[in-house]
Design brief:
The protein is of the alpha+beta class. The protein has three domains: 200 residues, 3-Layer(bba) Sandwich (FAD/NAD(P)-binding domain); 112 residues, Succinate dehydrogenase/fumarate reductase flavoprotein, catalytic domain (Flavocytochrome C3, Chain A, domain 1, Alpha-Beta Complex), CATH 3.90.700.10; 104 residues, Methane Monooxygenase Hydroxylase, Chain G, domain 1 (Up-down Bundle), CATH 1.20.58. Helix content is 34%, strand content 19%. The protein has 14 helices and 18 strands. α2 crosses α3, α3 crosses α9 and α11 runs parallel beside α13. The termini are far apart.
Length: 565
């Protein structure tokens, strides 16, 4: 393959979820030309669409940013960089106001004020709720982007990798190469600043509530370009992801709704014994209690436990009213009555809390490259509270947009290095077969990898299993080395699947490597061979970077600041 199309822009945004869209709007409103690339249709693909719609904002009369800060640091087990946490809590209210300006509607109570919830770990009511959940959020942001003449969106565009000013990893990122699936063009995009907003890698796990495009591409591309990654072992497992019926596998029911002040239900084992204590524990504690119950043989026929609110003391009318939402009506359309049925669930991969290292300006460790949650890490720590994900996309999305704009305005035209470009073209074109080709092994290999990640890097981990996962990831990547796909012009999905699986193998190895490095248990990272937290040695981040084509591991101190509480 050869480059058949070239594009130029001030700001390149990779990913059209809520973070990427917000970054694009901020940069465009500041005066930059912005190009958004998305590997599916914008507004109809990506992780944000699965969000329930809660957003943490300290606007309750009894709340303030200092309380939000304290809750976030404490429930992240002191592993979040506090400079980023401070930015998150102080700017949340302004970014929520921006969303209303962009057309996002929030649920209101009978008095006309915001309907608010207080979930586990929050010392004050702090969650407001977006009408339509993640779908409502993304729809409004896509509409705002389409009405901004400085923003261009290219759908069905699969980015294959970043390119630098020259072949050296020490030089600035200067854009990207990607495949326009609509016309088959291998496209080079040069940009003064690039914002990575591709989300996490949750599709690595067999049990997940995230879509199949959550394959960690952006994290891998940043890593290959020389960026530092942080806390890759910290994957949030949501306690109540649906296992059965098969038609609902991957949807979730709110474990937060089991709180006494909401529906006062519980998760039960096969004998009807409650698994979770009251008051309800935070997410990482809940998922460990559930994982232990499953491990102890208390699970149902499909390996899960049973989410149930049919016995709620609140009464049937209250239960039905609370569950009268798009999400629960969807569940009901599949023949399951969430107000009355026992739903088999298990902890599932929900959110990447680690990722690309960023500072307060969303700058990565490479010049010209910015990143946003959730492909960026180091502020949640070892656990995230309900509603924090959407808040982070808006706060840091806006920061990435304005800081990328300032960077682009201060820099001259970029020149893409020939060696960097040739390397990327060669990597992609080597995957195209000439003439006949053998039957593809991509799907069986992908399922083998996902099974291994689920088994060895799930809720409960140990050294032996993590080493085995690294070995399996290497074996699959080696087997993929000879895999080729047909030279299809339009929508070459086999090529996308192959390149994504390469990315998944690489990121699986990095997750396993960082999980092996952290010899303690903290938050969502639980080592059965190191079951206790080790504050003496591990109140710091794990770090991984590419060195001579291989991962180099280390540690990075947690940023701490003095702040009033």
């Amino acid at each position: 393959m050869e480059i058949t199309e070239q594009l130029q822009t001030d700001i390149l945004v990779i990913g059209a979820g809520s973070a990427g869209l917000r970054a694009a709007l901020e940069a465009a409103e500041a005066g930059s030309r912005v190009l958004i690339l998305n590997k599916g249709p914008a507004g109809k693909s990506g992780i944000t669409l699965t969000a329930a719609g809660g957003m943490q904002v300290p606007i309750h009369p009894e709340d303030k940013p200092d309380y939000y800060f304290a809750d976030t640091v404490r429930c992240g087990y002191d592993l979040g960089d506090q400079n980023l946490v401070r930015a998150l809590v102080e700017e949340a209210q302004g970014r929520q106001a921006d969303l209303e300006r962009y057309g996002v509607n929030f649920v209101r109570d009978a008095s006309g004020g915001y309907s608010m919830g207080q979930f586990p770990g929050q010392t004050r009511p702090r969650n407001v709720f977006i009408k339509g959940g993640g779908i409502g959020l993304v729809s409004a942001l896509v509409g705002a982007c389409k009405h901004n003449e400085r923003i261009t969106i290219l759908d069905d565009f699969f980015v294959t990798g970043l390119v630098r000013e020259d072949g050296s990893q020490g030089k600035a990122v200067a854009g990207a190469v990607g495949l326009n699936l609509k016309n088959g063009n291998l496209t080079l995009i040069s940009a003064k600043a690039t914002i990575m907003a591709t989300g996490g890698c949750q599709w690595l796990w067999e049990t997940t509530d995230c879509p199949a495009d959550a394959t960690g591409d952006g994290v891998v591309y940043a890593y290959r370009a020389g960026a530092e990654l942080i806390d890759m072992e910290m994957v949030l497992f949501y306690p109540s992801v649906i296992l059965r019926p098969a038609s609902l596998k991957g949807a979730f029911v709110h474990y937060e709704f089991l709180s006494p002040d909401v529906l006062d239900g519980n998760v039960y084992d096969k004998d009807g014994q409650a698994v979770l204590p009251k008051p309800l524990p935070v997410r990482d504690q809940a998922m460990r209690l559930m994982a232990k119950a499953i491990q102890d043989g208390r699970s149902g026929p499909h390996g899960g436990l049973f989410w149930y609110v049919g016995d709620s003391p609140k009464g049937e009318e209250v239960v039905r009213k609370v569950l009268n939402t798009l999400q629960y009506n969807y569940i009901k359309s599949h023949g399951v009555n969430p107000a009355a049925d026992k739903i088999e669930v298990a902890p599932g991969a929900h959110y990447l809390m680690g990722g690309i290292f960023i500072n307060e300006e969303c700058k990565t460790s490479i010049k010209g490259l910015f990143a946003t949650p959730e492909c960026a890490g180091n502020f949640d720590g070892a656990n995230r509270l309900a509603g924090g994900g959407i808040t982070a996309t808006q706060v840091f999305g806006a920061k990435a947009g304005i800081c990328a704009h300032k960077w682009a305005r201060s820099t001259g035209p970029v020149t893409i290095g020939a060696a960097s470009l040739e390397e990327e073209i060669g990597r992609v074109s080597s995957r195209i077969a000439g003439g006949n080709h053998k039957k593809s092994n991509i799907m069986p290999l992908r399922e083998k990898l996902r099974s291994a990640v689920q088994q060895y890097a799930g809720v409960i981990r140990n050294k032996e299993g993590l080493l085995r996962l690294q070995e399996i990831a290497r074996e699959i990547k080696e087997e993929l080395g000879s895999e080729k796909v047909p030279a299809v012009t339009y929508y070459n999905q086999q090529l996308v699947d192959l390149l994504q699986l390469e990315n998944m193998c690489e990121i699986a190895g990095l997750v396993a490597g960082c999980a092996q490095l952290r010899q303690e248990s903290r938050g969502h990272h639980y080592r059965s061979d190191f079951p206790d937290p080790d504050n003496l040695n591990w109140l710091q981040h794990t770090l991984v970077f590419q060195k001579d084509g291989k991962p180099g591991y280390g540690k990075r101190p947690v940023v701490r600041i003095r702040t009033p509480i």
